[in-house]
Amino acid sequence: SGATGTHDLCLVFRGGSGIGNLNWFHFSLPNPWNSQDIGSVGVAGDTACDNNAFTVSGSGADIESNTDAFRYVQQACGSNCEVRARVTSVQNTDPWAKAGVMIRESTAAGAPYAAVLVTPGNGVSFQRRTTSGGGTTSTVLGGVAAPCWLRIVRSAGNSFSAYYSSDGTSWTQVGATTVVPMTASARAGLAVTAHDNGSTCTAVFENVSVNQSPVLSPISNQAILAGRTLVVTNSGSDPDLPAQSLAYSLLAPPVGAAIDPASGVFTWRPAMAQSPAISTIQVVLSDNGVPSLSDTQSFSVTVSRPAPPELSSVSITNAGIAFSVQGDAGPDYTVLASTNLLSWDPVLTTNPPTLPFFWADTNTTWAQRFYRIQLGP
Fold first, then answer.
1. Would you place residue 25 in the very low, low, confident or very high pLDDT band (cuts 50, 70, 90)?
2. 315, containing H or E segment
3. Which of 11, 261, 321, 328 has its CA 20 to 30 A from that of 77?
4. Which of 23-27, 182-186, 324-328 is least confident?
């Protein structure tokens, strides 16, 4: 399971007069892919994979109407994902034989789905079934044939868009984005139907990828005093196999807020001017897929204003004036001095680990001096 590449096999037969008859080997697909026939097919389908190139054979009358009959190579996907592939060839068992990419609510024959499929003789078709067991709606664009790139995108939960491309870079949308109600858990992958239930159609897919949105864990609401540093540890995961690289960022953060793009650790030291207030923080977790997908979580931070600082235990000695400062821990405490109550100069800025803290002014050259405490930042 999960093996890739080319290997030698050694077969050893033990027994009596007869050793049996060996016709073929069939190895399982790499994780997380599964392959099965959907609906009533006349001939069993098959799938082979070599270095992300899939050869899929499928029978079936059609992918159309109220029920489908085809071969499906699929894996689980969430509510924001896309699947793309280059269809290099599709066998002409019928002008309406189909090979392409699909997102489907389940493997039931009448399940809701959205797919973009290329045919041997009728171009590409964006097909969707919006209700279980309901009819199928198709948007067909002629003049397109394999080899071509196909792409189906699920966004905002239930919005589906279909595209084709000649080079995998410049994409043309087929039809309009359509709402197809589905549960959050669906199946995404490759679909092939012969449009002839008595035979199989073989299609070859290359550069196959299923890109899913990463999942960011919910974040609890927070409360903090202005001047203190808030630290929030975030976590997320990527359902893709292999998992992609993830990066954290913030959407329109308040001044001073930051997040480590690698670890997701959020830090913010609200300033006095940012209190009292409630701020909404939006954390974004993005993958490095093509295209990049993301998940966003929001939480609120209630910023309260610290208690006003107080001077106490004032004493005057030959060495100068001394006093204690009371207040909440966290903010910066700046001692300002003045001789006229009009102009003030900072003489000490500190962030004391505990309060109250004691300070003495040993400058004795002033006839009179006034003091006040200012909180920061």
1. low
2. strand 310-317
3. 261
4. 23-27
Question: Which token pair is 65?
Answer: 């109407």
Q: And the tokens for 263?
A: 């670890």
Is 28's pLDDT higher than 90? no
C-beta of residue 20 within 8 angstroms of C-beta of residue 13: yes
* CB 72 within 8 Å of CB 36: yes
CA-nearest of 158, 294, 154 to 215 is 294
Q: In sequence order, what are the beta bridge partners of 83?
A: 152, 210
Sole residue written with tokens 């966004």:
155
Contacts of residue 342, defined as CB under 8 A and 6 or more positions apart, other chains included, come to none
238-254 CB burial, b ≥16 within 10 A, e <16:
bbbeeebebbbebeebb
Which residues neighbour 114 within 8 Å (Cβ) at sequence distance 6 or greater? 102, 103, 126, 127, 128, 152, 154, 160, 162, 178, 180
Cα–Cα dist 125/121, whole Å: 11
Q: 281-308: per-residue pLDDT in tens?
A: 999 999 998 889 999 999 999 999 999 9
Per residue in 345-370, pLDDT (tens digit) is 999 999 988 999 999 988 878 888 89
Q: Where are the beta strands (DSSP E) in 33-169?
A: 34-38, 46-50, 53-58, 63-64, 67-68, 70-77, 81-90, 98-104, 113-118, 124-129, 137-141, 148-155, 159-165
Q: How many Å apart are CA 327 and CA 375, to the nearest integer?
A: 10
Percent of the chain's residues with pLDDT above 70: 95
With tokens 């894996």, the residue in question is 75
What pLDDT is attached to residue 364? 73
Task: Enter the pTM of the model.
Answer: 0.77
What tokens does 74 get?
């699929």
Residue 199 structure tokens: 């035979």
Matching residue, tokens 């609890």? 220
How far is residue 116's CA from residue 121's CA, in Å, rounded to a whole number? 15
As a whole number of angstroms, the distance between CA 159 and CA 164 comes to: 17
